[in-house]
Amino acid sequence: MPLNETKELAQIVDETILPMEHSGGDGWTILHGDTLQVIRVFKPQVFDAIITDPPYASGGWKPAEKNRTTNQKYSSMDKENALPDFDGDQKDQRSWTRWMAEWLSDARKACKPGAPVCLFIDWRQYPSITDALQWAGWIWRGCAVWDKMTSRPQKGRFRQQSEYIVWGSNGPMPVNRPVGCLPGVFRYANPQNRIHVTEKPLQLMRDLVKICVPGGRILDPFCGAGTTVLASRLEGYEAVGIEVTDAYYKLGSDRVRFALEADSEEETSE
Predict the structure, then answer these.
(1) Which of 241, 266, 267 minimizes the C-alpha distance to 24?
(2) φ/ψ of residue 83, rounded to 5
(3) Does the structural domain 87-195 have CATH classification 3.40.50.150?
């Protein structure tokens, strides 16, 4: 599909630089490619927020543990039911931190002044992601907690039932933005029948996107199952996603399209 056939892309991308495969519909687009390359083709100051769940490159301390597939690290499904693995999760901590800082720096240029950024992460990479965020020029403003409510018990230890949402802003963040006070803790169980190894609950993402100004444009550079894109559209935002893994580019695009069509049909029948 040529870029000039999608109105949203013509507004935000220099289409002479990098034509790319993409899918989309009214108010949403998913680009198929490597975030480090794709993010550099956006025009300046076209996004009102970045909300994303990047590869953690976590799941163990030793190289043999970190180099396992994403299914081996993050899923207990058997081989017959395993979901597709995703790219970019085998970096060591130094290379991962450099990589994070690099794309975050380019992403900041594509964001409007004061735009918020929200990044999911686990406890192992929490220190590194806050370093990368600040190296890239963002103001680190704190974190929120996703309480998954359940986890495998570990005798004599605390349950590891939480992940974190590190957040910041592109420079000063006006206090008079038309955005309410969001909670610091979100309690949602892992989604059932998920299509991505690390898929986040849809309602969690519908709550989280409300950090963006009403009607704004949200970027998810690692859109996976398309949950952020779908949540953004359901809450009235425009959304652009980027996905490098072939399987998830197709799965995520199809999921968003079918879900929005179903939502539209439901509204029409009411």
Answers:
(1) 241
(2) -85, 165
(3) yes
Report domain extents, the chain: 1-33+239-270, 87-195
Nearest to 110 by CA among 35, 177, 167, 214: 35
User: Tokens 């950090």, residue?
Assistant: 211
CA distances from 21 to 250, 255, 261 (A): 11, 17, 22
Residue 57 neighbours by CB distance under 10 Å: 21
Which residues fall within 8 angstroms of residue 69, CB to CB, at 6 or more apart? 85
d(CA 186, CA 181): 13
Tell me the pTM: 0.85
Q: Are the C-beta atoms of 134 and 105 separated by less than 8 Å?
A: no
83 token code pair: 């979901």
Tens of pLDDT, residue by residue over 94-144, are 889 999 999 999 999 999 999 999 999 999 999 999 999 999 999 999 999
How confident is the model at residue 194, as a pLDDT? 80
> Per residue in 3-16, is it b (16+ CB within 10 Å) or e — as a string?
beebebbeebbeee
**β-pair partners for 185:** 145
